[in-house]
Amino acid sequence: MKRISWIQRSLIVLFTLLLSGFSWASTPDIHWIKISATDKVQRTAIANTGITIEYVGEDHVTGIAKSAELEQLKSRFNVEVNFPMTVEMMDYPSDDSKFHNYDELTTALTTLANENPDIVRMKSIGQSHEGRDILVVRIGEESSDQSALPGVIFMGGHHAREHISVEMPLMLAQYLVREYRAGNDRIVNFVRHRDIHIIPIVNPDGAEHDISGGRYKMWRKNRKNNGDGSFGVDLNRNYGYEWGTGGSSTNKSSDTYMGEEPFSEPESRAIRDYVSEHDNITILLSYHTFSELILYPWGHSYDPIGDNSAYRVHDTMARRMAQWNRYTPQQSSDLYIASGDTTDWSFGRHGIISFTFELDPKNFWQGGFYPGEDKIDVVFNKNIEPALYLIENSENPYGVLQPTHMKFGLQSPLIQ
Ligand SMILES: [Zn+2]
What we know:
Elements: H1 6-19, E1 31-36, H2 40-47, E2 52-56, E3 60-65, H3 67-76, E4 79-84, H4 102-115, E5 120-127, E6 133-139, E7 151-155, H5 164-181, H6 185-193, E8 195-199, H7 204-211, H8 266-277, E9 281-289, E10 293-296, H9 308-325, E11 328-331, H10 342-350, E12 353-359, H11 374-393
Parallel strand pairs: 7-8, 7-9, 9-12, 10-11
Antiparallel strand pairs: 1-3, 1-4, 2-3, 5-6, 6-8, 10-12
Helix pairs in contact: 4-5, 5-6, 5-11, 9-11
The structure holds zinc ion.
Zinc ion is lined by residues 158-159, 162, 236, 288.
């Protein structure tokens, strides 16, 4: 379906509002706001209020706050309320039919596994609150002992409204199979000598809720019934490493609600158990949107990773990958403190080299969480090479620190 531009949509919204006499009857209780902040300490103070920061600029952040959070914010910070969000401002999911809802995703993964039983196996690693299977596809030649091979894991869809983060790992799985069948030497090599795990959606309940009723809801969390009228735990604040030590909320209605305890949620427990069972995994990438960033631990602390080699591996890989996708590479807490995320746990607990990508677009004005289906291919094309780079280097992540490692150009090999 032909998409209309953001400006066109905004004009339609304005026109609709004029006709309706500025009735905000259909306004959900969320506001797009801008708050002055010039450094990570100020940004952390803002994050600690429990709102979500979605974009970090030099002298401000932008994010989403509920009405109840606005007064508190205004008393402490310089807040500019850009506008209340209306459901009309968001696209209709029918305009975005290229995106996969849960059933379509399940069908796509099942088809991939059924048609390629020699290299793809699919299974459920657990169920969500509402009973949806959390699916993994594992790619590798069946003849090999996969668990003895270098392992790498990709996942998406922790946050409900971040729909492109589901498409990227799905397309990665499809790409690997397609190129293997086509005889692409590099990919054949990966499928033969790597153990590749792909979990496109960690939070299926949230994603289904976000598109239910034909309109996006700007939903972030899972769908746990908190028992007080509110729903949802922020799965990317629920992992059990330095959980609850900053940048997450104990308020159940907050978008960054950390849950009652570490791994209180079936979705985060499924990831915990699956990763823990596969100790050959050396690299993890968790896709999110948006902002165009490559983030690595720590998120819970301003300190860099204590093991200097591990720090340099993250930094080197992040900068290398940024040369392909043009994202900004940095330590997660350089933005603001956020504890209980996937990558602090996977590195802190298991020593896995771990990244979070905040995929396209760059900002809210380019579509934010809902940039339209045309963005899917753009995101994939920018991010396929970083994914292949991680698959390749899962054999020996620390090898990137070797001066002779730079085989992709840009930095000429040093003479030994
Ligand atoms: Zn996210």
